[in-house]
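debug: dumping io for the single-chain case to check the tokenizer round-trip. Nothing else runs in this session.
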Amino acid sequence: MLNQASNLINLENVVLIGSGKGGVGKTLITVNLAIVLKQLGYKVLIFDLDVGFTNSDVLLNVHPQYSINDLLLNKCEREDVICSTEYGVDLVSVGSDIESIFNFNPENIKNFYIKFAQIAKDYDFTLIDLPPGYNNNYAPFFNSATHTITITTTHPTSLVNSYTFVKILIHKGVPSSNIHLVGNNIENYNESLENLKRFSSVLEKFTGEKMGSLTIIKRHNLVEKSVFNRKPFVIDHPKIQPTFALYRIASILTKKDISYKENILDKILSFFRSDHE
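debug: decoded output
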């Protein structure tokens, strides 16, 4: 059934955002990256699959009335599950008991992916916020996605889990060039960059192929404050390093050389500016 479902997803620019473990800032990156893509003129959907930790709605300050699980149970229409936000990005939540669909009703698996494809086809980019780790129920997404972004920190446990996660993806047939490593919440930039480069090198030796890209997102107190304020940091703080890092990722996804509208001096100064700005 999962192989049949894979054939249902024939969409461009489906971007998976995953991690080896929870608590690495995956949803925060998903929301802010979606807004960056919207600012660049693309129509963007966030598909929140992180069951039990679905907090994209909190960060976007919205309250979805329906989930895709409601759609599968015929409790609403397709357009009812799409929640618009003030930032121009749309959100679809998976619902809290979506696992029951995969565990007990194979036909619903097919319907799940049909409903997803029907919604996603209207968007330039669909960003899927995955649960931590690899779940074979979502194999059609991994097999069909244009890009898979793997979020990690430099904490040893996070690196080990990320390594395992990426190895599984590659073993399942995901091309290394489609996998992008993002080191998040980084305090020591140079040291962390070297560690993540070594991490990438080990994976490249394992696969014989280069990873898609490596991006560093520095720790910044304004990013942390944005979570409490429920306001995406790319909106209020466009000149901090984490925002520039997301523009770099957007450039990779869109295959365009994106120049943020400010001069090079501003970029350099903001990169080295203290966290208190």
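debug: round-trip ok. The two ends are 52 Å apart (CA to CA).
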